[in-house]
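User: Just a sanity check before I run the rest of the batch. Below are the structure tokens for the first item. I only need the designed sequence back.
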């Protein structure tokens, strides 16, 4: 069983243009065409059973439309689990988070660069408390984003969120992309999850050390498709020499627990 906790797809009409634009800004390549069918095709090739789509609302007026579309898709395709979207300045946060819970959506994705906020800002507290009250997890883009010169979610910022009672947080890219030394100092072993999305460039010894120090029960397998393939990340993790029990945690057990899926 393999659950890819960090993937993306775009509406068919804008998928390729969106990927072309983002790839050009970040100077990276991508796989497929950016649409749902492309994700499904690569899932089959790479042996992924379930992918979790992580949509991002770049404007507050996108939030409700995205969430209703994600709820609809969750009813129609069981191999794709869609998180919801939220934006820091969206009005009606409590009601929308409750809608997500009632719709069976288990989490939201926040992107501090795209949405221009720092995780520890006081204005974010209402959102975090609403998520905690409704058992809605938050996956943060954390660390460097190749399309930006700024970094809004630093490991020291991420650490502040761990003070919020009942909040489930996932910091993508092994805690903070390209800031892994600080992650080891400030976040490893703490009450939060990391995912492995877009971490193929990590030194194997550091990746293994971080998994063991943080605990395999708090690591989620992620690729960041279409920017990376699940097969590439799985090959890297398989080569670390971890016990099978640790790999099982990373590949499906932790994700199934967070998503409420019975394996």
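Assistant: Here's the designed sequence for the first item:
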């Amino acid at each position: 069983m393999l659950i890819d906790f960090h993937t993306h797809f775009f509406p068919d009409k804008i998928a390729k243009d969106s990927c072309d634009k983002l790839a050009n800004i970040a100077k990276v390549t991508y796989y497929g065409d950016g649409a749902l069918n492309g994700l499904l095709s690569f899932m089959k090739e790479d042996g992924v059973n379930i992918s979790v789509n992580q949509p991002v609302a770049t404007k507050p007026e996108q939030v409700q439309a995205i969430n209703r579309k994600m709820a609809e898709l969750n009813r129609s395709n069981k191999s794709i689990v869609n998180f919801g979207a939220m934006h820091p300045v969206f009005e009606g946060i409590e009601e929308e988070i409750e809608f997500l819970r009632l719709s069976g959506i288990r989490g939201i994705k926040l992107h501090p660069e795209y949405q221009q906020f720092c995780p520890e800002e006081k204005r974010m507290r209402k959102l975090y408390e609403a998520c905690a009250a409704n058992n809605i997890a938050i996956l943060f883009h954390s660390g460097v984003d190749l399309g930006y010169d700024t970094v809004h979610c630093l490991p020291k910022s991420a650490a502040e969120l761990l003070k919020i009672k009942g909040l489930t947080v996932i910091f993508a890219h092994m805690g903070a992309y390209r800031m892994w030394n600080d992650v080891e100092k400030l976040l490893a072993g703490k009450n939060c999850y990391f995912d492995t999305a877009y971490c193929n460039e990590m030194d194997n010894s550091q990746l293994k050390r971080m998994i063991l120090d943080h605990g395999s029960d708090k690591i989620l397998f992620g690729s960041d498709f279409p920017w990376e393939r699940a097969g590439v990340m799985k090959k890297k993790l398989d080569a670390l020499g971890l016990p099978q029990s640790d790999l099982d945690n990373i590949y499906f057990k932790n994700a199934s627990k967070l998503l409420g899926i019975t394996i």
